[in-house]
Design brief:
single chain; Rossmann fold; 2 domains; elongated; alpha/beta; 11 helices; 15% strand; 320 residues
């Protein structure tokens, strides 16, 4: 296929440093856009846009052919645009972003295994905590980790853990023959009930869709024989707060490390704040760094110009 003329890239973003990173790449003309004057972007063919700004801007860009969203999760974007738009939408991701997620997950596994939370509390009370219960922990090569999802984020986590000898399972509703990353997992399950009894840790990386919403519930989590730690870096809609609290109180899961929630920010009235088995972080497991966005965007920009298939194209029918 013949190459296109390199189109200018319009940028609608509030991410500090992004425009500078895009300009420094020197691969295209970068045109910063102003949301207060959308008339300037009516001729845009290609745009880089924050998810929060896209819903209000896309109608002012009738000539759009491709928008790259600076967010990895695009479920809020899909909900704000009622029907499939006239342009191709890609989302942020790539190996660098997946590596940030993997570092968070491994950090939290080590945190739970070595019970660092207990030492922090002990330090606050000037207590020398010398206990066999606290001292005992498992190493990464002794653990079974089940990951909900087998996409880029899941593969980043699996790759990191496998390099440390961890047994890693993946869950997917169906297996796609073209996927080359299945060898990162010791086994991929299509039946969640078969995977859960084997897990010491259960990590969710799935996006929020009609199929994933409420996937984890009482009936499912009762199958967790090993009382795993639940780590959520996907979306909070995977389990309702009410059922998560019930699972913790019934000891179906031993701990929950939560970076995402049904409602964000998490309300002060939430019972989760006061539960000793819960670790809360405010949606910071990975963030869209401007240099990572620029690198990933221009890899796709080259493909776009040459008429090649791009990465992380959003399928409107499935929601990611």
């Amino acid at each position: 296929m013949a190459s296109r003329i390199k189109p200018p890239v319009y940028v609608l973003s509030e991410i500090p440093g992004l425009i500078e990173c895009l300009k420094n790449a020197e691969m295209a003309e970068i045109r910063p856009a102003n949301t207060s004057d959308l008339h300037d972007i009516k001729n845009a063919e290609v745009a880089v846009c924050d998810g929060a700004l896209l819903a209000n801007a896309y109608k002012s860009m009738p000539n759009l052919k491709w928008v790259h969203c600076t967010w990895a999760g695009v479920d809020p974007v899909i909900k704000s645009i009622p029907e499939k738009p006239h342009f191709v939408l890609t989302r942020h991701g790539g190996e660098a972003f997946s590596r940030l997620i993997a570092e968070y997950v491994v950090c939290q596994i080590l945190n739970c295994e070595r019970n660092f939370k207990a030492y922090i509390i002990a330090q606050e009370t000037e207590t020398w905590l010398d206990s066999d219960v606290i001292r005992y922990y498992r190493s990464l090569d002794e653990l079974n980790v089940g990951i909900l999802g087998v996409g880029n984020m899941a593969c980043g986590v699996a790759k990191f853990l496998k390099s440390r000898g961890t047994t890693v399972f993946g869950f997917a509703r169906s297996l796609l023959p073209k996927r080359r990353n299945y060898d990162l997992f010791d086994k991929i399950y299509t039946n969640l009930d078969e995977m859960l009894p084997k897990c010491d840790y259960l990590c969710n990386t799935l996006p929020s869709t009609d199929l994933t919403s409420g996937m984890l519930n009482d009936a499912v989590l009762k199958k967790c024989i090993r009382k795993p730690v639940f780590i959520n870096v996907g979306r909070g809609s995977i389990i309702s707060e009410k059922e998560l609290i019930r699972a913790l109180r019934n000891d179906w899961i031993s701990c929950a490390v939560l970076d995402v929630f049904e409602q964000e920010p998490l309300p002060q009235s939430s019972e989760l704040w006061k539960m000793s088995q819960v670790i809360i972080t405010p949606h910071v497991s990975a963030y869209s760094r401007p240099d990572h966005i620029s690198d990933f965007f221009f890899k796709n920009y080259k493909r776009y110009v040459h008429g090649e298939e791009m990465e992380n194209v959003v399928d409107w029918s499935i929601g990611y």
